[in-house]
Amino acid sequence: MKVVLGLVVGAVTVQFLKHGGGRMLAAPALQKTNYRKHRLPTGGGILIVVAILVIEAGRAAFGALGVGDTVDLTIERTEVLFAVFAFGLLGFIDDVLGDDTRTGFRGHIGALRHGEITTGFLKLFGGAGVAVVLVATPGFATGRRLLVDAVLIALAANLANLLDRAPGRTIKAALIAYIPLAVLLGTGPVGLAIAPVMGAAFGLLYDDLKEHLMLGDTGANIIGATLGLGVVLGRGNVSRITALSVLVVANLAAEIWSFSTLIDHVPPLRWLDRLGQRPERRAA
Predict the structure, then answer these.
(1) 32: which strand partners?
(2) What is the pLDDT of residues 80-113, one digit of tens each?
(3) Phi and psi angles of residue 266, each rounded to the nearest 5 degrees, phi first
(4) Within a 10 A sphere around the Cβ of 96, how many other Cβ atoms?
(5) Which candidate, 48, 32, 51, places its Cα nearest to that of 40?
(6) I need a surface site. Which of 90, 135, 140, 272 has the fewest CB within 10 A?
(7) CB 25: neighbour CB atoms within 10 A?
(8) Which of 218, 223, 263, 217 is nearest to 103 (CA)?
(9) CA angle at residue 21 from 46 to 119, to 5 degrees?
């Protein structure tokens, strides 16, 4: 019940902020052209950042008044809050300042060889740095544990970005991944910590599908990193190694094949991908 409440609070908060933040989203710096040549706000995931700040501030205020089970900010909530802000910032920089001329690991590494640090490179390798900080908190993790967990979080964030090539795709994939994770985490501290983030993400699904805004790298980064962090904080060695293996394969596959092409060639995936999208997209 507490997890469901966290999901609902996240969804309601992000919708309240979306309706109240119309002027912010309409800023020229956030306007980009989508696949149908329409101009709409990118970086809509910034609403998730603000929503989680509001929710955690509310949790702290109610806790100080003796409302709720805990009166302090747990380490799990602290880590999730840091992940949301750090990965959100890196994604927002890429949404506002980036371009599409360099893509994928090879594109960003190739630019670096020519002395150019792209916003995509900053997002990828900055995300790896953030993941290391998350894994090393509160106690320093040594050896294989530090490497495995940091790479898992960073690759989860990158995979979510790679999937964000069609309206609603990243959030749908996140929902599929989150359901079994939520069951495994239950009402423990990790499950309660990530629930508002996932609720806020799911709260933007309709707006993403109907192209009222683009989730952007800001939102995709946050969603992927939060799911990865949930696995790292809440599951054992076998689960983490399994998740890492899947993420490595998926990220490498994206360097060779287009996810959009693969999805279009598999009828069940194509149906799920286009479910809820505007007719123009389905016709395309």
Answers:
(1) 40
(2) 999 999 999 999 998 888 766 656 556 556 666 6
(3) -120, 105
(4) 18
(5) 32
(6) 140
(7) 20
(8) 217
(9) 30
